[in-house]
Amino acid sequence: MVKFIASSLTVLLLTIAAVKAQINIAAYPKVNEVPPITSPEVQAWLKEIDLTGAPAIELHKGAPPACPNPPIANECYWTCDGCAADDITACAAPNTWGLTFDDGPSVYTPTLLDFLKTNKLSASFFVIGSNAIQYPATLKREVAEGHHLASHTWSHHALTTLSNEQIVAEMKWTEKAVMEATGLRLKYMRPPYGDINNRVRFVLKKLGYIPVDWTGDAYDTNDWRIASGWTEQQVVTTFTKSLDAYVASDKAKGFYCLEHDVADSTVKVALKLLPLGIQRKINFASVAGCEHDAQPYQAGSTAPMPTLPGVNPTTPGQPTPSKGPTTPGGGSTAGGNGTANGPTVLAPKNGASTMVASGLFTAAAAAAAALILA
Ligand SMILES: [Zn+2]
């Protein structure tokens, strides 16, 4: 018996080692801490970019920081003044729920992936580097099942509180972790807490990243509030009102939600929220699908560029085909029901924003709806 337990334990440890061996955790900084900028790796990354000309905006304080009072001129601070500059804040596809999950991967992510697979839905996962090195197999599964990976920094600190060099460290270590697990070099990112201003944007652009915020307060599902007292039903009721308001609008643009795959409660409520969209015949897409980006990762990826649902395949290096006119920006927030404090939605300027719903995209959504409603 003892021998059996010992051999079982050995098998278990070897299995864990086999998964862990995909990422050499010892080669990475401490998890959940801002990586030091003195390491040889960060010093090498800093040599690759020119941060000269970064806006001289003072660092904010707090976790997350309070809004500066008085406001800082020309900061364009999304969380406080709703200024989004050229961040992506709305899904470019009409009548579409831009499906994004932040803060993973976690032990709860596979449950969500099972649901998405059953319903043929594709999402973007904004992963935290500190979690990515611990669950490389989950990252691989996400890619294999048609999902899109994006960055949510290494340690989930508010970026306006970090120096330019620390932002580089946060982004590049996460990029390295996902590259090691999947061979894909991340291109899109979401700032933790939506905390982004013009200084942060400057650094992100130097690194080739495109920020994706969410479409204002109405599209924060508030799933994270369950940890601090909200009931699951409160989340469902509140978000149902947002969806109904969206359905009653012109739906010319889609929306990006704030959801998380880091806790049991946020995954469980996601499995209740998503059917609400399907019942309302809202399409679903990842950021790549929403923005019709056939190159949803940066050059330098060592794995082949995956073709994601909703994106027409193209030859690498060729322009993304466009089937119709662009959705002009400068209008209202998606659905026209953004709050007074919500972001100004501008036309995405990522060079791949000429999204129209493709036949593939629509067919996949219809199939998903049929599965759920049957
Ligand atoms: Zn987050």
UniProtKB/TrEMBL annotation:
SUPFAM superfamilies: Glycoside hydrolase/deacetylase
InterPro entries per the UniProt record, alphabetical: Glyco_hydro/deAcase_b/a-brl, NODB_dom, Polysacc_deacetylase_ArnD
Name of protein: Chitin deacetylase
Species classification: Eukaryota, Fungi, Fungi incertae sedis, Mucoromycota, Mortierellomycotina
UniProt entry keywords in alphabetical sequence: Hydrolase, Membrane, Metal-binding, Signal, Transmembrane, Transmembrane helix
Entry keyword Transmembrane: yes
Membrane-spanning residues: 355-373
Cleavable signal peptide: 1-21
Segments for region (Disordered): 296-346
GO BP terms, alphabetized: carbohydrate metabolic process; fungal-type cell wall biogenesis
Boundaries of every NodB homology domain copy: 95-285
Biased composition (Gly residues): 327-339
Listed GO MF terms: chitin deacetylase activity; metal ion binding
PANTHER family cross-referenced by the UniProt entry: CHITIN DEACETYLASE 1-RELATED (PTHR10587:SF133), GLYCOSYL TRANSFERASE-RELATED (PTHR10587)
Protein species of origin: Linnemannia exigua
Gene Ontology cellular component list: membrane
Bias (Low complexity): 313-326
